[in-house]
Amino acid sequence: MIDTIIKKELKQFYRTPLAYILFALFILATGWMFFNFLVTYVQSTSHIPVHKRTILDFHTTVIFKLFGNINLLFLFITPLITMKAISFEKENNTLELYFRSTVNESSLVISKFLSSSIICLSLLCSTFFVAIVLRIIGIEDLTFYFSSFLAMSLNILCYVAIGIFCSVFSSTQITSGVFTFVGILSFWLLSWGLNISTNYFLMKNIEYLSLMTHFEKVLHGVFSLSDLIYYLSFIFVFIYISIKVIESRKWRAI
Questions:
Q1: Distant-in-sequence, close-in-space partners of 201: CB < 8 Å, separation ≥ 6
Q2: Of 35, 146, 183, 233, which sees the most CB atoms within 10 A?
Q3: Residue scoring higher pLDDT (41 or 98)
Q4: Please, is 210 exposed, middle or buried when counting C-beta atoms within 10 Å of its C-beta (0-12, 13-18, 19+)?
Q5: How many Cβ atoms from other residues are within 10 Å of residue 116's Cβ?
Q6: Mean pLDDT of the 36-62 span
Q7: Closest Cα to residue 180, out of 247, 116, 228?
Q8: Residues 6 or more apart in contact with residue 194 via CB below 8 angstroms
């Protein structure tokens, strides 16, 4: 049943004008940013001898900044994608129809998570034009592009998990979207609070909980087991709680 729900969700999304408007705006925005960062790099290094320029300088100026801004875009895009996940079913009183069939709570939440993730990741895949342009202009080492792509993909999965979680708790799509935006932003802002205390243990825990800490590490090609555990645990916790919240309706009905 999971694949059936995913297909239904994807068909519903790609049959709406929002899908094509979103893709067009995203590609336009990333293309414009990439062009501007590229021009900035050329202008800033034009006075530096060729033999003193490094590939790391290029990736720092262009690729890292590009994906940092793409990360910002998904702060706004993810709530748009996920706000319909469960709250839409509540608004239209169709949630119970799923459970009267062979669909259980786990299948529904996982299906909604996977379909929203596919939509968001398909948007991100449109940045492959960057890799093509890099090869055309003679950049052969695309390691940092792919590490940046991986970092953004992992962040997106976490954003979607937050979105599903907020949609479960919300009775309207607008509320779900706002809560998702605030939820994602909260995990961003954790990294800003690293100087609020001199307690080393507390600061290390705050640092570990921050999405931006792990994003920056993977972005720069440093991907450890600790980061993998963080991302998997993050997604699991939000999806698990979402499932349990929907299951609790049975207790409320008794």
A1: none
A2: 183
A3: 41
A4: buried
A5: 28
A6: 73
A7: 116
A8: 203, 206, 207
Cβ atoms of residues 164 and 116 within 8 Å: yes
- Write down the pLDDT at residue 253: 44
Tokens found for residue 24? 């067009």
φ/ψ (deg, to 5) at 239: -70, -40
Q: How far apart are CA 236 and CA 106, in angstroms?
A: 12
Q: Is 173 exposed, middle or buried (0-12, 13-18, 19+ CB in 10 A)?
A: buried
Phi-psi domain of 138 (left: phi exceeds 0; alpha: psi -120 through 50; beta: other): left
pLDDT beyond 60 at 52: no
Which burial class, exposed, middle or buried, applies to 147 when counting CB atoms under 10 A from its CB (0-12, 13-18, 19+)? buried
Instruction: Categorize the per-residue pLDDT at 26 as very low, low, confident or very high, splitting at 50, 70 and 90.
Output: very high
Residues 6+ apart with CB under 8 A from 123: 22, 23, 26, 77
Query: If you count them, how many residues does the chain have?
Result: 254
Least confident piece of the model among 81-95, 120-134, 157-171, 227-241: 81-95
The predicted-structure confidence for 121-180, as pLDDT tens digits, reads as follows 999 999 999 999 988 888 888 888 999 999 999 999 999 999 999 999 888 899 999 999
Lookup result for tokens 């999965």: 157
Mean pLDDT of 80-97: 83
Contacts of residue 241, Cβ cutoff 8 Å, sequence gap at least 6: 165
Which residue in 228, 82, 213, 54 sits closest to 150, CA to CA? 228
